[in-house]
Amino acid sequence: MTKFLEIQGLRKSYPTPDGKEVSTVFEHANFSIEKGEFVCVIGHSGCGKSTILNILAGLDEASDGLVLMDGKEITGPSLERGVIFQNYSLLPWKTTLDNIIFAVRARWPSWDKSKVEAHSKRYLELVGLSHALDRKPAQLSGGMRQRVSIARAFATQPQLLLMDEPFGALDALTRGVIQEELIKIWEESKQTVFMITHDVDEAILLSDRILLMSNGPKAQIAESVKVSIPRPRTRTDIIHDENYYKIRNHLVDFLVNRSKGLSGSVCDVKPDHQPLTVDLAAS
Ligand SMILES: Nc1ncnc2c1ncn2[C@@H]1O[C@H](COP(=O)(O)OP(=O)(O)OP(=O)(O)O)[C@@H](O)[C@H]1O
């Protein structure tokens, strides 16, 4: 069976500053994502998470390897892949509603004006922003701007949504509220999501599966941890699930104790390396 997203033998290397050698950020990255899956990736700073996300978006090129979406190679950006960055990237001269309309119109040029507007408003409603349609980004808080980015990305219904630490710049309270809005909008759309986060609790709340990257240089996708906590999930409920602390402790132990020893610069990683599947519910 063809997987929705297949990453085969991905490597990224850069020349060293003197230009005489190459430094390999990650290599032998092999993993796949099923249609409708929500996958988070966690790893220490510099291991190459954003580089992988940018390659999946078609915004960066791998030094080696292949990315296939629905069996077709990704060679550049496409409206089939939506990206949400930490810094919101809204058009500052357009209102909240016009920011969404702009993207929706680009996605479905044949739609008439009223259909585009109704569709755009519906997504703003899903993130609780119906009251701020006419405000410009500068008149919104950071949390509201990120809600607009989320509404815009989901409104264009890309086949794959890529999120690079979307809540990294938000305070903990705002972050919690928007995480739950993201769950709500995702549960409605069941879009396939690949998201980078540094926050283990956020990863457990949102993901079906968490990919753990070892440290760079020569980082690898070391493990694929199943989040066997039933949905729908809320921040307050998941901590009572019997698997919550098992998963959390496993992730923290990886980041604190094991991520360095699994780096390709320390141990031998074979080109056909597959991440170790971890299902703590079964243990
Ligand atoms: N143009 C470049 N030339 C040389 N090295 C680069 C270049 N761009 C990125 N790198 C290196 O690639 C590595 C991976 O960067 P990347 O941003 O993907 O890491 P990351 O895991 O997302 O980090 P963070 O969690 O801090 O955002 C870093 O060590 C970085 O220094």
Automatic annotation (TrEMBL):
GO molecular function: ATP binding; ATP hydrolysis activity; nitrate transmembrane transporter activity
CDD domains for the chain: ABC_NrtD_SsuB_transporters (cd03293)
Domain of life: Bacteria
Source species of the chain: Thiomicrospira aerophila AL3
Location within or outside the cell: Cell membrane
SUPFAM superfamilies: P-loop containing nucleoside triphosphate hydrolases (SSF52540)
Similarity-based family: Belongs to the ABC transporter superfamily.
Keywords from the named record: ATP-binding, Cell membrane, Membrane, Nucleotide-binding, Transport
GO cellular component: plasma membrane
InterPro entries per the UniProt record, alphabetical: AAA+_ATPase (IPR003593), ABC_transporter-like_ATP-bd (IPR003439), ABC_transporter-like_CS (IPR017871), ABC_transporter_ATP-bind (IPR050166), NO3_transporter_ATP-bd-like (IPR005890), P-loop_NTPase (IPR027417)
Membrane topology: Peripheral membrane protein
Pfam family membership, one: ABC_tran
ATP-binding listed as a keyword: yes
Domain ABC transporter: from-to ranges: 5-240
Transmembrane segments: none
Listed name of the protein: Nitrate ABC transporter ATPase
